Amino acid sequence: MDHVKTYNAMEIKHKNGNIIVEGPISQDEMAKLEFHEHLTAFRIPNQQHKALVKIAGLPEGRIIIARNGNEIVGYATYIYPDPLERWSEGNMENLIELGAIEVIPKFRGGGVGKAILKVSMMDDAMEDYIILTTEYYWHWDLKGTQLNVWEYRKVMEKMMNAGGLEYFATDDPEISSHPANCLMARIGNRVSQDSVQQFDRLRFMNRYIY
């Protein structure tokens, strides 16, 4: 399928400075921007920056960023699921994963995460995709936010809802390993019923195993 990407943006007046939320960002632009040192949820910052530059260059790869001036202070990535995950087993061209979303502590609590998701979905091409995200409590900043797993899960769900992602049940063992973990997804309005059924089969791969 053609991976059409249409740039969109919005401005947020945050108490700690104005933020531009924009994307999908090109690979060249991604490489030029500075990357905040507190973006540490997944890798050390310079390694994560390199990973995002690489993702931005992939045909299906999408990076939506929040920047303060010339510095990235938040981002979300959209990419095909990891080959080691069950979600890749159907080889679905129209199934992409919201693989990471991160905002530095200084700019949390001002709707930046929600804005990143809203800008992501402003692109009409997203109606051709099933977008999924897997939420695992061990990736959450419980210490920094002083929230327990259920409070954090509630915040995370509300943020994902801003992008149209909703809770979906699954028998995936890693998600099922803790009740706070969850699968969320958004099914675009041009996704075929065949693709929805294929996604359902991926969600419940163990249903007929006895």
Biggest sheet, in brief? 9 strands, mixed
Mean pLDDT across residues? 93
- Number of structurally distinct domains: 1
Question: What is the ordering of alpha helices and beta strands?
Answer: EEHEHEEEHEHHEHEH
Helix run count: 7
Calculate the terminal CA-CA distance, rounded to whole Å.
37 Å
CATH third-tier fold name: Aminopeptidase
Radius of gyration using CA atoms only: 17 Å
Instruction: Give the proportion of residues in helices.
Output: 25-40%
Number of strands: 9
The chain-level structural class is: alpha+beta
Assign the CATH architecture: 3-Layer(aba) Sandwich
Name the CATH superfamily assignment.
Gcn5-related N-acetyltransferase (GNAT)
Give the strand content.
Answer: 25-35%
Q: Any low-confidence stretches, pLDDT <50, length ≥5?
A: none
- Class, according to the CATH hierarchy? Alpha Beta
The geometry reads as globular
Keywords: Acyltransferase, Transferase
Domain N-acetyltransferase: 19-189
Pfam families: Acetyltransf_1 (PF00583)
GO molecular function: acyltransferase activity
Verbal overview:
Keywords: Acyltransferase, Transferase. This is GNAT family N-acetyltransferase. Pfam families: Acetyltransf_1. The protein is an alpha+beta fold and 210 residues long. The protein has one domain (8-203): 3-Layer(aba) Sandwich (Aminopeptidase), CATH 3.40.630. 30% of the residues lie in helices and 27% in strands. It has seven helices and nine strands, in the order E-E-H-E-H-E-E-E-H-E-H-H-E-H-E-H. Strands 1, 2, 3, 4, 5, 6, 7, 8 and 9 form a nine-stranded mixed β-sheet that branches. A hairpin with a 2-residue loop joins strand 4 (62-68) and strand 5. The longest helix is centred in the C-terminal third of the chain and has 14 residues, at 149-162. The radius of gyration is 17 Å and the shape is globular. It starts with 7 loop residues before the first strand and ends in a 7-residue tail after the last helix. The model has no long low-confidence stretch (mean pLDDT 93).
